[in-house]
Amino acid sequence: MKILFTDEAKKDIVDIVQYVARNNSEVANNIFDKIWYTCNLIANMPEMGTAVSSLIECEKGDEQIQEIINAIPLLDNVRRFPVSGFSRLIIFYKIESKKLKIIRILHGSRDIPAIFMTMFTDID
């Protein structure tokens, strides 16, 4: 399965690696390798991730946010999976015509519902 990265996902990788490299370049290189490894793992077993809507529902428990998320049809097929060895880094992806589209790679402490609400209207 071919792996495609959105511009946002590419920027996420650069930002994550640069942030970590400020303190430890070896760990930053390891994160980069683990992101690539995990993307290949997902490409081989794309259904192993969890639907984004369930993540948002579990973490927020806010029916209003869930209604907004459910109203965005592009989220219907978006899944999430943690980066191997770095469980707080989460890869968000979609499967489209035998292609794995990496949408974002985000740290779990970020406001993921807010990020989705602002960015998913731009994904084709």
Entry summary:
By secondary structure, the protein is α+β, with helices and mostly antiparallel strands. It contains 5 helices and 5 strands.
Question: How does this model look, in words?
Answer:
- The protein is α+β, with helices and mostly antiparallel strands.
- The protein has a single domain (2-122), classed as RelE-like (YaeB-like fold, 2-Layer Sandwich).
- It has helices at 7-21, 25-44, 52-60, 63-71, 112-119; strands at 2-5, 50-51, 79-83, 86-96, 99-107.
- Helix 1 runs antiparallel to helix 2.
- The radius of gyration is 14 Å and the shape is globular.
- The relative contact order is 0.20.
Helix content: 40-55%
Helix and strand succession? EHHEHHEEEH
Summed up, the domain count is 1
Protein structure class: alpha+beta
**Unreliable runs, pLDDT <50, ≥5 residues?**
none
What separation lies between the terminal Cα atoms? 19 Å
What's the count of strands? 5
Overall geometry: globular
Average pLDDT figure: 81
CATH superfamily: RelE-like
Q: What topology, given as strand order, has the largest sheet? A: 1-5-4-3-2
Output the radius of gyration.
14 Å
CATH architecture: 2-Layer Sandwich
Largest sheet: 5 strands, mixed
Oligomer: single chain
Per DSSP, what share of the residues sits in E-state strands of 2 or more residues? 25-35%
CATH class: Alpha Beta
Number of distinct helices: 5
